[in-house]
Design a protein that fits this description.
- The protein is α/β, with parallel strands linked by helices and 388 residues long.
- It has 2 domains: 123 residues, Aspartate Aminotransferase, domain 1, CATH 3.90.1150; 256 residues, 3-Layer(aba) Sandwich (Aspartate Aminotransferase, domain 2).
- The protein has 10 helices and 13 strands.
């Protein structure tokens, strides 16, 4: 695989950033150049090309979500899509949102700010370092009531990689009380198989993007919208008038386009979509699908954990949660280390790229990382931990 990623020099350094910023295949560079050429050639006419490319990106996300008939709104980042969703909720009648205590900053910060303005935000959690299967989902369900406008929760937790089980039960409980469900699937897409229909999420919203495991780069995020959605987001862009059901926009009640247009924004940079289309085609040509990528990821994580165990390090310096089996983990390995930031810096000085979140050092392998590179990274980790 490494030959397809020559511009990221994946053979010259060890990129364990698969959970944050995967390398882009060389076809993405060519696509980015094509975006510039199309703008120069067609000027305003480039938007006809961009619209067709966006449709292909939507189709790609539908495949990754196993949601062939789903409505997909695109955005530059998940924050703009999450805030559009929040702005559509009936918060006057239902001033309550349930979330978990393990959400990414996009959700955590925005809900914290809304709480300051009077929104009731309930953070459900599960006790223990390794919650029992379904425990997080049950904690969310227990927090629901008929004042709840929405549940916002992840399918994989960003800090430790735990796969959240029981989303189908959360969806049923939300439907029972009339609440909306938004699933943050960023740490699932293209590394942990995700199926809207198979997981009982046909009536759920799903948000995510291509910056991590999809190798699209920035600016290619999505919001999956239920087929019968009639919500009217307050934060709405003029692209939402493109749908065939949009009324005359010159007066009266603000109208919304059908399907993905309901949550559309406005003018955007289409370059990311050029990259995404090229990478989607590349993945299909190489037969890289979520099932295969999951198998590769699991094998790589197993190799990392076996190597780290063989180092026999002082557990007060670095350890990992052996009670959480690999099959319940997402696409990265979370290592507990008080000096996680310092260890990440030491590894970077040796051309091993990884990251940390507080006292958690994160190793994220990717399909282009070889077994030899994984073994070398483990050896360098041992040196970094043992260095005074």
């Amino acid at each position: 695989m490494a030959r397809h990623y020559s511009r990221f020099r994946v053979g010259e350094r060890i990129l364990l950033t698969g959970h944050s910023h995967q390398a882009w295949p060389d076809v993405a560079f060519d696509a980015q150049m094509q975006a510039w050429k199309d703008a120069a050639e067609f000027v305003d006419g480039k938007w006809d090309l961009a619209a067709a490319i966006a449709d292909e990106v939507r189709a790609g996300y539908r495949r990754l979500l196993d949601d062939p008939d789903g409505h997909i709104a695109l955005g530059q980042n998940t924050h703009e899509l999450v805030t559009r969703f929040l702005s559509a909720l009936p918060l006057r009648e239902r001033p309550r949102v349930v979330t978990t205590d393990g959400e990414f900053h996009t959700v955590r910060r925005q809900l914290a700010r809304l709480r300051e303005e009077g929104l009731e935000v309930v953070q459900a959690g599960a006790t223990g370092s390794v919650p029992a299967p379904g425990a997080i989902a049950q904690a969310v369900i227990d927090a629901l009531d008929d004042r709840t406008a929405a549940v916002v929760m992840s399918s994989v937790l960003y800090r430790n990689g735990l796969i959240v089980e029981g989303l189908d039960e959360v969806a049923k409980a939300c439907e029972h009380v009339g609440a909306n469900l938004l699933v943050d699937a960023y740490h699932s897409i293209n590394v942990v198989p995700f199926s809207v229909s198979g997981m009982g999420l046909e009536r759920a919203f799903v948000v995510g993007g291509g910056y991590k495991y999809c190798q699209f780069g920035e600016g290619v995020c999505f919001l999956r919208i239920p087929a019968d959605c009639s919500l009217r987001p307050i934060l709405t862009g003029w692209f939402s008038e493109f749908g065939e059901l949009a009324d005359n926009p010159t007066g009266g009640r603000v109208a919304y386009g059908d399907g993905p247009h309901r949550f559309a924004g406005s003018t955007y940079d289409p370059v990311g979509h050029y990259r995404a289309r090229a990478v989607l085609r590349f993945f299909r040509s190489e037969r890289l699908n979520p099932l295969l990528l999951r198998a590769v990821s699991q094998a790589q994580l197993a190799r990392l954990t076996e190597g780290i165990d063989a180092l026999d390090l002082d557990p007060t310096a670095l350890s990992w949660n052996r009670d959480l089996p690999l099959e319940r983990r997402g696409g990265f390995l979370a290592l507990d280390a008080l000096a996680a930031g310092e260890l990440a810096a030491r590894l970077r000085s040796r051309d091993v790229f990884c990251d940390h979140r507080g006292t958690v050092l994160r190793f994220g392998p990717a399909p282009y990382v070889t077994d030899a590179q994984l073994d070398e990274a483990v050896g360098l980790l041992g040196e970094a931990v043992g260095r005074p």
